[in-house]
Design goal:
Length: 819
């Protein structure tokens, strides 16, 4: 089968090219003159272009024709002047390079390819390759960074059955897994000579994509696969099952580009709208667009591609065409710029840019060789090209070390492995209804940039597929776990699939898809949604709140009343009512009640070190004195009735000695307990951050609960003894004896404190303090009312009863009642 599409230009040195697309290769900078009019130091560079139609057999044939004489297929037979190329440019598929190498490596001809580097079996074979394509690892990491940037962790992968795709899948899968990206499906489309079988394979792939919950699909293919992809989309458009209805963001690798065959020129390009693709980093070459638009089929008869392109693009035919078709006759004056982008792009694509740089790389390497030769040679006229041919083996070394600025202002150089030093652009495809499209650069991968600049993306510049209505698409196995929830793995599903559990009490998560909730600081608590920590309010019985104000007013009011009673008793201290039942005990009891009312003020307000030290010991000692006074009063009454006979031995215990001993003895024991408490485990200010949600309880830590309950226990013991004694003496006859009042008051006292214990233990914070304050006020008020109010009433309102005669009359009445 002859190779029809060739392009040959004679020259002193020839650069060959075996490619899968018909492109004019030129080393012209300005594109204002024909390539054969440009000279580099008077040495003309020719070119010999073959189209291999994506077939390995024709790649081999083209390689052998390069080694044959012009117009004769006799490889390696020099029957006349034979111009073996100094270098061969190949692409865009990596397998083309390997097929070329099978022939050309025997002649050590440098091969410059604009395809990604394939898997090479030996280093010797790789020495002849130079890649106008950056290291593929940069593209792999770029795809992962793009997916992670948009949080697309649930994706699909589609690839075609070509060698480069197998390499891509083999290298990418571990990177996906290590980066936390899961694959819903990996679909391979089998390309074969059976068109029907290939289409069936593609339809099966489409159905899988339609049923998948992944909205992002990575598509790896080669440049010719775009044609096949367009056919599949066309089939589904007819069946109203287009991918745009389901909503898919396609991510294409740099090996792919837009291609079209003649029958597809009227097809829509909507399927590309919003897609993202990688491309070799490139820039606009000045003058190229104008040069392309000026091309005419009659300008160069040696171009074997342009006439066929012209007929297919403009739907016409030339009279000299081998196959006459119906339609208009081509004039050659048709305007290339009028063609839609889906038929022909006048701008330089990344593949064309790579070819452009490849030609200049060879030219600069040859120029470097020539300069090296001229330093040692004096005869330099027309024999220069002969010298270059003799030293062409050195081209490998000079190509590897070449570095130059192209006309677009970009530096072109190779690394030690022969791969292009550079990165990738991220392209967003925007299509229009007139079958044109734009390639919008929205990001880049630059491995030579600082770490924080290696990956750059402009999200606002991206146009998404229409179905997403310009809202960033999601591609997740399930919905995000919102703040306030944490992820938990689901058994039997990929690690990207998880359930969401709410954070427990006291913990929050303030980011999406967190693996665990974290504890709020002690001075903060979790909100009801468990998505943020809120500062806790201080909880203590304050003078600024109603409860604290009421208790403080009550304490002051009872203190005032107690002071009034005390003052009244002191004013009427000579009356029989005040003298009865030990006048000094009454004064001591009133003072202790006054102090007990005032000591409650220690419990109100912000606790500090001093108030915490004074609260419980002060309360314990004062109450001990008050209860011991009640006990002394009761014992005094009992002894008084036991000493009614003259000369009784017990009489000497009646009076101040016995009552004073009881009060002092009980107070001493309580003071000793409090001293031990303060010396060993004294109370201190403390913060309880856990008992009440949203509040920090500022409290006085008792230090030792054992000592605290010892203090309460001793007061309770005295109260029970006093209650028992008062109950037994309640029926003793006397005009002003207080046994009944003491019994009733102690019953009230014990009832209050029995109720206090469970209530105190079941409350927290300021309410617990309020319970204790209330208990102190209630029990003290009970003693005050029951013991002193009857006497206070008689002293002020019934003074005629406060007389000795009345005392005798009432005594006689009581004796008669006893009889």
């Amino acid at each position: 089968m002859p190779i029809l599409h060739k392009y040959y230009q004679a020259g002193d040195l020839t650069i060959a090219s075996i490619i899968s697309q018909s492109l004019l290769i030129s080393d012209v900078v300005t594109f204002r003159r024909h390539p054969n009019e440009e000279m580099i130091h008077e040495t003309i560079l020719g070119f010999n272009i073959y189209n291999n139609y994506f077939r390995p057999s024709l790649t081999f044939q083209s390689s052998m024709e390069l080694l044959s004489s012009r117009g004769k297929f006799i490889p390696n037979y020099k029957c006349d002047i034979q111009n073996i190329p100094v270098a061969v440019i190949g692409g865009p598929n990596s397998n083309i390079c390997l097929h070329m190498a099978a022939i050309l490596r025997n002649y050590k001809i440098p091969q410059v390819t604009y395809a990604p580097a394939p898997e090479i079996n030996s280093q010797t074979q790789g020495r002849f390759f130079h890649w106008m394509f950056p290291n593929g690892h940069h593209q792999y990491t770029g795809i992962v960074q793009l997916l992670l940037y948009f949080k697309w962790t649930w994706i699909g992968v589609v690839y075609l059955s070509v060698d480069s795709a197998e390499t891509f899948i083999h290298n990418m899968l571990p990177i996906f897994i290590q980066s936390g990206i899961c694959l819903d499906f990996i679909e391979k489309i089998h390309l074969s000579s059976d068109v029907a079988g290939t289409i069936i394979s593609g339809i099966a792939m489409y159905n899988i994509i339609l049923e998948s919950s992944a909205n992002t699909v990575v598509f790896h293919g080669e440049i010719q696969d775009m044609t096949y992809w367009r056919i599949l989309h066309r089939l589904f458009e007819f069946e109203e099952m287009s991918m745009k209805k389901q909503g898919t963001v396609w991510i294409m690798t740099a090996e792919m580009d837009f291609t079209s065959v003649s029958f597809q020129k009227s097809w829509d390009t909507d399927f590309l709208h919003g897609a993202l693709s990688f491309s070799v980093q490139s820039k606009d070459v000045p003058g190229f667009k104008k040069f392309v638009e000026s091309r005419k089929p009659y300008l160069d008869k040696e171009d074997g591609c342009i006439m066929d392109f012209w007929e297919q693009a403009f739907n016409c035919f030339f009279p000299t065409s081998m196959v006459q078709k119906a339609g208009n006759v081509c004039t050659g004056e048709e305007k290339i710029e009028t063609l839609p982008g889906s038929v022909f792009e006048t701008g330089m694509t990344s593949h064309s840019y790579s070819i452009y740089n490849a030609v200049y790389a060879v030219a600069y390497a040859l120029h470097a060789i020539l300069l090296s030769i001229l330093k040692h040679k004096t005869r330099v006229h027309r024999e220069r090209w002969i010298l270059l041919n003799h030293h062409s083996l050195q081209l490998h070394h000079f190509l590897r070390s070449v570095s130059f600025n192209n006309s677009a202002g970009e530096v072109v150089s190779f690394d030690q492995t022969g791969e292009l030093v550079g990165g990738f652009n991220i392209i967003n495809w925007v299509t229009f209804s007139n079958q044109t499209f734009l390639r919008v650069k929205v990001g880049r991968i630059d491995p030579n940039a600082p770490p924080d600049k290696v990956f750059e993306i402009s999200e606002d510049a991206i146009v998404w597929p229409s179905i997403f209505n310009q809202i960033k698409p999601l591609s997740l196995c399930n919905d995000n776990c919102h703040p306030g929830y944490r992820r938990t793995k689901e058994e039997g599903r990929p690690f990207c699939c998880y359930s969401c559990l709410p954070c427990p009490e006291g913990k929050i998560s303030n980011q999406t898809d967190t693996d665990d909730c974290f504890q709020c600081p002690e001075d903060q608590y979790s909100s009801s949604d468990h998505n943020l920590c809120i500062s806790k309010t201080l909880n203590f019985l304050s003078y600024q709140e109603p409860l604290g104000i009421c208790l403080a007013i009550s304490a002051l009011a009872f203190s005032f009343i107690t002071a009034v009673v005390l003052g009244t008793f002191m004013k009427y201290h000579k009356t029989p009512l005040v003298k009865a039942n030990n006048q000094n005990l009454s004064y001591t009891l009133l003072i202790s009640l006054l102090l007990s009312f005032l000591c409650t003020l220690l419990f109100i307000g912000h606790p500090d070190k001093v108030t915490c030290l004074l609260q419980q010991p002060t309360f314990g000692i004062i109450f001990c004195v008050a209860v011991s006074c009640m006990l002394a009063k009761t014992v005094t009454v009992i002894i008084a009735f036991m000493t009614t006979k003259p000369g009784s031995r017990i009489q000497k215990w009646i009076g101040k000695k016995l009552s004073g001993f009881i009060v002092l003895f009980c107070a001493f024991i309580q003071a000793a307990i409090c001293t031990i408490w303060l010396a060993t485990f004294p109370p201190f200010p403390d913060f309880d951050t856990y008992s009440v949600t949203g509040e920090i309880i500022v409290e006085c830590n008792e230090g030792s609960f054992i000592m605290f309950y010892c203090v309460l226990g001793f007061v309770s013991f005295l109260a029970l003894v006093c209650l028992t004694v008062a109950y037994l003496a309640r029926k003793l006859p006397d005009t002003f004896q207080e046994s009944k009042s003491i019994a009733f008051s102690m019953l009230l006292f014990c009832s209050v404190w029995l109720t206090f214990i469970p209530t105190y233990l079941s409350t927290k914070g300021k309410y617990m303090v309020a319970v204790e304050v209330f208990s102190i006020l209630a029990s003290s008020a009970g003693l005050l009312v029951c013991v002193f109010f009857p006497k206070f009433y008689i002293i002020l309102l019934r003074p005629h009863l406060n007389k000795r005669e009345q005392l005798i009359i009432r005594k006689e009445w009581n004796m008669k009642d006893e009889e």
